[in-house]
Specification:
Layout lengths: L47 H16 L15 E5 L4 E5 L7 H12 L2 E5 L6 H11 L4 H7 L1 E2 L6 H5 E3 L1 H6 L8 E3 L7 E5 L6 H13 L1 E4 L2 E4 L4 E6 L12 H5 L3 E4 L8 H10 L15 H12 L5 H11 L17 H7 L3 H7 L19 H17 L7 H11 L11 H4 L10 H18 L7 H10 L7 H19 L6 H26 L1
Parallel strand pairs: 3-10, 3-11, 4-7, 7-10
Antiparallel strand pairs: 1-2, 5-6, 8-9
Helix pairs in contact: 1-2, 2-14, 14-15, 15-17, 18-20, 19-20
């Protein structure tokens, strides 16, 4: 076999041997029934999760040199080694683990979301993005020509399209002017290279395309298909020509860091030079996805279940951060968002917050909370990761592994917090991914300590309300109101306020108001 053919080799199915479970709801339920076969029968469609894994292993084995297996899973005990003066741990995972630099862009492709590559020049960010366009079935030349290159003079017309000159001269009204739209707007994979070099005004036009899937020039609208987006930046913390507007940054779903090249893999680079092979030019047809397959894969990913036990821990984690007691007077406004919108110096607001244990309180480590968009993104990517691994339910470890990449620049650390001033935590000041995962671990430990899996009276009251109010009598309504009031009294006795407790009290106030409104309605009948 010629050496160049090595780059076309696709892993044989199954790439993730194990128990295959029936899906919850699919039109093609037979895909996952029966025992796992080592080969797909002639003419039989390959399950899309298996095809996605084949794409991953083709990329990691042949296309992109990425030995950084930083998304770690274990099946039983893992071998660990303590290294260096700082006593850092090297773990050899005992189950199939993955490179975030390859897996996260692939999950972005499967879910048609938005991924930002961050890293120094020459680390393959643009090449990785181009590879995603090839997987979507576009010719390599078309992908390269459609890629938008950020530069300081980029105008809205450069980005979106120009009015036709003849129409500008002859048109009697704006509706008569035709627009020559840029071809990239109609592609299902969109690439913007060095997006932080685009002028602010043009960033606003890009935001409309990214957020609302349409482009607008001179009042004319061009509808864009739902797409996977890939953006690159050498430095996403102010190193670009222009500051990226906050709304545009918030539209980015996951951030992937391009880690340093390991010289031990120099031989692989030499082979590519000697064989004159570029992997993106020889992508095998077996890992190319049609538009219909991507649509169907998105449906299958959305059908992956999130068990209650996983959701409860995510609720508890997110409840840690938004609460800020000294930011407001009325209960609802005691949040970090209130402090941020006020324009008051952050250090001044923090100095007034002296009633809690700032080392114990996880909320003191951040300057903000988790937004609705962040939560939705986190759930989508957790489902996608579970789907990629061949499961039909999200495991807690799936959520733990994906969370740092979603909240990478969304949950902002307060580096002046006592946690970061401890010598043993110094590494978390710069390693944001590890900090976020550690933060989630601390939250889960506290959840277990409080035994909230088995003993959560707020959840019990919420579950009772979720059954509906049809047929609930006035007497029963009053009884439920009393239970809520007693629980609020119990929770508020002599306790410091922390994020999860603040969220519980807010939930109880909501339930109390709903029952109060219902009671008034009953009386009016």
């Amino acid at each position: 076999m010629p050496l160049s053919n090595l780059f076309k080799r696709v892993s044989q199915a199954p790439t993730n041997p194990g128990t295959v479970v029936k899906p919850r709801q699919f039109d093609v339920a037979e895909l996952y029934q029966g025992p796992v076969q080592s080969e797909v029968a002639p003419g039989e469609a390959l399950p899309l999760d298996e095809k996605l894994r084949q794409a991953y292993f083709w990329i990691v084995n042949n296309a992109i040199i990425s030995p950084h297996y930083d998304i770690e899973y274990n099946d039983g005990p893992a071998q660990t080694y303590v290294l260096g003066d700082s006593k850092r741990t090297l773990t050899l995972p005992s189950a199939q683990s993955y490179s975030s630099y390859i897996l996260l862009p692939l999950l972005t492709f499967a879910t048609r979301r938005k991924c930002l590559f961050v890293g120094g020049p020459g680390r393959g960010k643009t090449a990785s993005a181009i590879l995603m366009g090839v997987l979507a079935g576009y010719p390599l030349k078309e992908v390269r020509r459609a890629m938008q290159h950020g530069h300081p003079q980029m105008t809205i017309a450069d980005l979106l399209g120009n009015p036709l000159p003849a129409d500008l001269v002859n048109a009697q009204d704006m509706e008569s002017i035709r627009i020559a739209w840029r071809p990239w707007l109609s592609m299902r994979v969109k690439i913007v290279d060095e997006y932080n070099r685009i002028p602010t005004r043009t960033q606003s036009a890009l935001l409309t395309v990214m957020g609302d899937n349409y482009a607008e020039v001179l009042g004319h609208i061009h509808e864009c298909p739902e797409s996977a987006w890939y953006l690159t930046a050498n430095d996403d913390r102010g190193g670009g020509t222009y500051q990226v507007i906050e709304a545009l940054r918030d539209r980015i779903d996951v951030i992937v860091e391009a880690l340093a090249f390991n010289p031990r893999f120099l031989g692989d680079l030499l082979l590519r030079i000697e064989e004159n092979v570029r992997p993106e030019e020889v992508a095998p047809r077996d890992v190319i996805f049609t538009a219909e397959e991507v649509d169907r894969m998105g449906e299958e990913i959305r059908a992956v279940a999130v068990p209650e036990a996983v959701r409860w821990r995510l609720e508890f984690f997110c409840g840690q951060f938004e609460f800020f007691e000294t930011a407001g007077v009325q209960f609802e406004y005691m949040t970090k968002d209130t402090a941020r919108l006020s324009g008051v110096d952050w250090g001044q607001v923090v100095a007034a917050d002296n009633g809690r244990d700032r080392l114990k309180d996880l909320g003191c480590q951040t300057k903000n909370g988790v937004s609705v968009r962040n939560l939705m993104t986190l759930l989508v990517f957790a489902k996608a990761l579970a789907y990629f691994r061949g499961n039909r339910e999200v495991a807690l470890e799936d959520l733990r592994q994906i969370l740092p990449f979603v909240l990478h620049d969304k949950l902002q650390p307060d580096l002046e917090a006592p946690f970061f001033n401890s010598p043993e935590n110094a590494g978390y000041r710069t390693d944001r991914l590890s900090w976020l995962r550690h933060l989630f671990d601390l939250s889960c430990n506290e959840f277990d300590r409080l035994d909230l899996d088995r003993n959560d009276p707020v959840r019990e009251l919420a579950a009772e309300f979720a059954l509906g109010l049809d047929g609930v009598s006035e007497r029963e309504t009053r009884s439920r109101l009393s239970k809520i009031e007693r629980l609020v009294g119990t929770l508020s006795k002599g306790r410091k306020l922390y994020g999860p407790l603040y969220g519980d009290l807010q939930k109880l106030k909501y339930l109390h108001q709903r029952y109060t409104n219902y009671l008034h309605w009953l009386r009016a009948q």
